[in-house]
Structures
1.
Amino acid sequence: MVLQTTKRMEKVINCFKRRPDAVARLICFPWAGGGSIHYARWGNVLSSSIEVFAVKLPGRESRAKEPFFQNMQQIVDEVVGALLPLLKEKPFALFGHSFGAFTSFAVADALKKVHNLEPVHVFLSGASAPYSEMRINAPNRSSLTDDDFLKWMTSIGGTPPELLANPEVLKLFLPALKADLHVVENYKCNKLDSPFLSCPVTCLDGKDDIPHDLQAWKEITTGDFTVRMLDGSHFYLKDSGNEKIILDYVTKHLETAEMDYL
């Protein structure tokens, strides 16, 4: 049973540095079309008190031959199924950027409502709340032609120009990106009647990104709610200076949360 659980977790999670004595875990969800490497690296950088689990979705990296997920429920079922035993062991937090903010929200919702488990902190980046008017009225991108899609990608910044100029790489990259956007665009989430979390929630965003309704995220928690704006556009978190600010912030809050948890 333990072996089966471990194999299931290794399929879904990339963890560069196992830390059995860590006081908390940080579960990170990729942006649309993204892999797990960016976040998995954080495991080498963060203090030994935090173990980083970077979520790997089908259709990319070691799961390249698996079909993409078609809806949010498939992501939630897989992530919760793989991580549930571990999430019961010690405090955990969630971090997600853009598409990852939606998946973080959906996983937190399921963990609370189905399993009565709650993170000690949720970090949401670069996205409007899924039930906000701004999100509901956002144009659909997944059905654009490849040319129009690339124009849009170029306009939001953050994608390396050499990637956009390489047809072979694009052929591999675009299907994953479009599949993830399809999931977001078909994810229906009603306005909340009441907050389902009590933990702190922090929203992060790039000052030069298109505006997002960050304040709407306040509705998910009765706990502290903070917004932090950093220099840069949609992929502001790839900047090394911003990354240091984010990791220092995450570390401070998780180490504090662990004391509260006890």
Note: The chain has a mean pLDDT of 90.
2.
Amino acid sequence: MTTAIWIVLALLLIGVYLSWTAGRLDRLHARIDAARAALDAQLLRRVSVAQELATAGVFDPAASMVIYQAAHAARLAPEDQREVAESELSQALRVVFAESAQVVAVREAPGGQASADELEAAVRRVPMARRFHNDAVRAARAVRRHRTVRWFRLAGHAPFPLAFEMDDEPPPALVEHTARPDRPGH
């Protein structure tokens, strides 16, 4: 009789552990979904501000075309090519804002101050959103690597989480210009 009690107790503990692990994995997948939505929102914001600046007439025609084409490509890129398109937008922004004189010229243009501030905020938020997403992916992958998760198929039919890898380095001239202490309000 006591052996049966121990077996039932062991099975109950295993069941509780498996249920807890499945719940944890489910929460991690929900966290990935939320982080991906936040990343998508920040990428869309960056694309929108870049397109707005490109069409505002604050750049020379060549710079406007480079930014607009890169932003347009990033907005319309299929999911499997999105990382490359977003990286190309980052590179285009760094090329156009390579000199701090370009940042000053944009800020001095009518309506340019607000647009430059929006762009600066967007290029700062994209790396943070990407980092949160990739951290959630890393945590879910760590749990999914456990044997018990694989043996008991606790992940269900959820796709294996993939990190979002892109070049998200902001234009140094834009970031340095906004980080200056003599700038009011910052």
Note: The chain has one domain: 21-178.
3.
Amino acid sequence: MTSIGTGYDQVVSTYSPDGRVFQVEYASKAVDNGGTAVAIRTKDGVVIAVEKIVPTSSSGWVPDVKALATIAADEAWDYQERYRVPIPPKILTERVSMYVQAYTLYPSVRPFGASPIIAGMDGDEPFLSLIETSGAYFGYWGCATGKARQLAKTELEKLDFATLSTRDALKEAARM
């Protein structure tokens, strides 16, 4: 008797010579070709600026951006219903990044071609993170994604985030 696998027990196995997953690399290239998004965390808030109007603070394939925005909204709603308080941005980032990472593991799905920026207030503290196409996420004082990511990162390195006001960050983001 032979058994037929469903495919769900298989793992993505198309690796580059240096050990990276090709599908994640392709998804990252989609993000790099998208519109530029810059986010700046200040002492009193977070400013997000985008090169063009996009459905969310993200760069990449629009359907993937919309899917991740829906996942984030569903996670926020579920948390609110369950705990009766708004979801902290760090927990939202963790939950969305788990979806992104899970979509890099199985051949029946492909990695998301989007890198969402999640911002919010965690109590009195501003919070800013960016989720990579691999599912890894990092907290930032300033981050950028999209076509002009490198230029924006160079400009972000010049800023003193701890003393920057939201008003000044808005001017800096518009300049970038």
Note: Strands lie at 37-41, 46-50, 117-122, 125-131, 137-139, 142-145.
4.
Amino acid sequence: MEWIVLLSIGLLAGAIGSLVGLGGGVIIVPALIYFGTYTSLVEGMNPQTAVGTSLVIMIFTGLSSTLAYLKHKTVDYKSGLIFFAGSGPGSILGAWVNKGLNMESFNLYFGIFMILVALILMIRNKLKPIEKFRNASFQREFTDPSGETFRYGYPPLLGVVIAFVVGFTSGLFGIGGGSLMVPAMILIFLFPPHVAVATSMFMIFLSALVSSGTHVIFGNVKWLYALALIPGAWIGAKAGAYINTKLESKVLVSVLRIILILIGIRLIYQGMTG
């Protein structure tokens, strides 16, 4: 039974993470903590092992969706590598800070973060892009399958700083970081949405390699559960990437932000009541 549950969690996390560029950790981490706390399906789970195990899954989610997006030529490699220069060190620091969190404090902080992510998803389509970066020092160009060309740009240093914050939250909470990086790329740097999602998944793959390695060193990975989650996450990520190229993800984002708010409220309650 536990293998079916974990496979389903991986499938759902991979599909949602790849579709909207979140990475999927916002599904995996709360699920592992819930099943570890309230059922006997997942044993020996604490904030550190939930995050460490989730980040191992993020490697395969990120790789699977990146390979899928490569076929549609929507991954901006150069930008992804620039952002990784910030997210890599940030993810190591986040993994180190995660060591000091007990279950109550982790639930509280993670719950607040989940609600923040939901609010970002709620308002990101209503915010206007910052036009002043259109002519920034680092310029990029993308032509979509319909032949429309998009031009965008950003100061590399600012990109690295934002990515560092994103990497820190990824290493701390095991969530991948796309929840912050995708809106930043779209609103601040004027990335086309599909390119932002695809590039975010590429960066998540690279960051997850670094941060999961840190958690492996700390002994925070439940390998048996990871092996059960990986197949579902791999298949789900490919499905999410395919759906992303075919339709708008507004409906899913609307459902996701409601789920995140509910999970966030529950985690905050658990964190405050112990």
Note: The chain has ten helices and two strands.
